[in-house]
Design a protein that fits this description.
single chain; globular; tRNA 2-(methylsulfanyl)-N(6)-isopentenyladenosine(37) hydroxylase activity
Length: 198
């Protein structure tokens, strides 16, 4: 199967962006909570791997960026008089974590898996942002999602680079391919969801 520019095996169903545009309020609410979870995930990695200065130094500014994104999405909601709404469970992220987590004692292998999970989620988010930036009618939102797309693409690459700082690139790439295959299956089975970013 050919890979997209982000390395994802399965591109988003073309119908998603049209359905998402018709439910943009729900998408923005879900997006806000996705940004909160991204910031929290980076904080968790810093707490877990406090003894790895490269990781801590690299992820600390990303926490600020992700929280800044949360604030920007919140402002988009407020412009449209849409309430933030309750925090939502993310079936996509839950399945990624459940299906790709391993019971292993190897510290660096565990770190690699945690970093690659974050890379995977960022890559899918970036792909969805790209679709929104190119296809929705609202010009200001197109610009908004283009800016976020560029940022998320950088984050996706950062997580992979961090994994390769701790383990051989060949090992990371092999595991990354396993992640991509599982993620493609998850996306296919979840189908098109009108109220979710993923």
């Amino acid at each position: 199967m050919s890979l997209t520019t982000l390395g994802l095996e399965l591109p988003t169903d073309p119908r998603w962006v049209n359905i998402a545009e018709m439910n943009i309020g729900e998408i923005l609410v879900d997006h806000a909570w996705c940004e909160q979870k991204a910031a929290s995930s980076c904080i968790s990695l810093i707490v877990q791997y406090f003894d790895q200065p490269t990781l801590v130094d690299t992820l600390t500014p990303i926490v600020s960026e992700e929280w800044g994104h949360f604030h920007r999405v919140l402002k988009e909601l407020q412009k449209r008089d849409i309430p933030l709404g309750r925090h939502r469970k993310d079936e996509y992220v839950n399945q990624v974590r459940t299906r790709l987590r391993r019971s292993i004692n190897d510290y660096k292998e565990q770190m690699m898996d945690n970093l690659l999970m974050n890379a995977l989620i960022e890559a899918r988010s970036c792909e969805r942002f790209k679709l929104l930036s190119e296809q929705i009618a609202d010009e200001s939102l197109r610009k908004f999602y283009r800016e976020l797309m560029i940022s998320e693409a950088g984050h996706y690459r950062t997580f992979i680079d961090l994994a390769e700082a701790y383990l051989p690139a060949e090992r990371v790439r092999k595991r990354w391919k396993e992640f991509l295959a599982v993620e493609a299956d998850i996306i296919a089975k979840l189908g098109v969801r009108s109220d979710r970013m993923h």
